[in-house]
Specification:
about 110 residues, Chitinase A, domain 3, 1 helix, 6 strands, about 5% helix, about 35% strand
Length: about 110
């Protein structure tokens, strides 16, 4: 897997931009690079996930990749451990501290 963090806006929306302090509503899927195992997704249950950008509740990759992205966008992220869950990993999702992750995130709305 790549050793560096990377993000790409696959589709650029035209809505309000995600900024620290704003509520961001997303649909997403996250997978472990090795084996392409999906560990979390909102698309299967149809329930979007909302969070406040910049409040420290997100992994570093999401904070970095989504800041400035307008609603209606789709973002692809390749997330090495330092930008994800770090050395502890996330055992509840089967993520080891050495795992690189891949996320596809749709920014549905920004408030």
């Amino acid at each position: 897997p790549p050793a560096r963090f990377a993000s790409t806006v696959l589709e650029r929306g035209s809505g309000p931009k995600a900024r620290p302090g704003r509520l961001v509503v997303t649909q997403y899927a996250g997978a472990v690079w090795a084996g392409a195992r999906v560990f979390d997704t909102t698309w299967t249950n149809g329930l979007p996930k909302a969070f406040k950008l910049g409040d420290g509740g997100l992994i570093k990759a999401w904070e970095r990749a989504l800041t400035g992205v307008p609603a209606g966008s789709r973002v692809l992220m390749v997330v090495p451990p330092a930008y994800g869950y770090g050395a502890p990993g996330f055992p509840a999702y089967g993520i080891k501290g050495s795992d690189t992750l891949v996320f596809v995130v749709d920014v549905l709305a920004v408030y």
